[in-house]
Amino acid sequence: MPVQGEAQPPPHSRAAIVKASGMAALGAAVLLVTVVLPAEYGIDPLGTGKALGLTALTQASVAEPVPPPQGAVLAPVQEGNVGLYPGEYKVDSREFVLGPYEYIEYKYHLAKDATMLFSWSATGDVTQDFHGDPDGAPSSATQSYDKKPRRTATGSFIAPFSGIHGWFWENPGGESVTVKVTTAGFYTSAHEFHFNGTRQAREVRALDAIAVSDN
Amino acid sequence: MILIRRISAYAVAAALLSFAAPVVAHEDFRVIGTLTKVDQSTISVRDKAAKTTSIRLNKQTEITRDKKKVEAAELKVGQSVVVDAYGDSEADLLALEIRIVPAISGSK
User: Fold this and answer.
1) Chain-chain contact of A101 with B28 (C-beta, under 8 angstroms)
2) What is the CATH number of the domain that holds B48?
3) Is the ipTM of this complex over 0.85?
4) Is residue B63, in this structure, part of any structural domain at all?
5) Which one of A8, A147, A159, B65 is most buried, by most CB atoms within 10 A?
């Protein structure tokens, strides 16, 4: 409510209001074309966005991709909590039927510090020894990691040295026992050693051998 | 002079061989099956594939039944045995341990 004695501004004429509105609309249009469109949508018809550095705002800031570690040895390069490898891990699954008193050794070649995940189970009692043999060392250099009596084991393993690492399973009884093992890891080969002195290299599967789930 | 050189060459070769011999690795073998022949120095074992393997014994060969040591005279034709042996091949095996085990089905 106007107070008596205060100066009152002169009322605006209709023409003045239209003129002011027109000027405001023009200013908004200029800002839209020169600032908002370049900054928000990358549309820069007048080049003002580029001149003001606004078009960069619409471009995602993607850094140059870092290449994976290089090298022939499948060993990890540690970056904080992440171990990066120069190649993909492999997968493998085997089933062995051990007749009475038979044994088998099944081992993978892993470089020092390389990781492997495993699960194995036996249908009966077995004598087991999870162990490793360093590359080029005599058999006396074998190192045992776990030889507790087990029928099943699931775990992860980091190779303490470059060499072959795996299990000795022996059937100590007179009935056949089946052992199934499944692994995934940064190994390069698998080797099977039989009780009768024979040995065999086994092929390990690359990741593209795994079917992709579609749901 | 030529003879001396030749003898020296043989001596060097013999020395090298004597160093190399212990490096030749023996392999471990296990033979599982039925005794088909037993004598003081050799046993023969027929496995479930009907293959017969001859294995030498010596004084260090340990013979057990139920985890207890027994005399070599306990070995009889027809028994089921598990033989841990080593050698360069299945044709040249020396028994380290012979276990007399309960009859194994399919090994006779």
Assistant:
1) no
2) 2.40.50.320
3) no
4) yes
5) A159
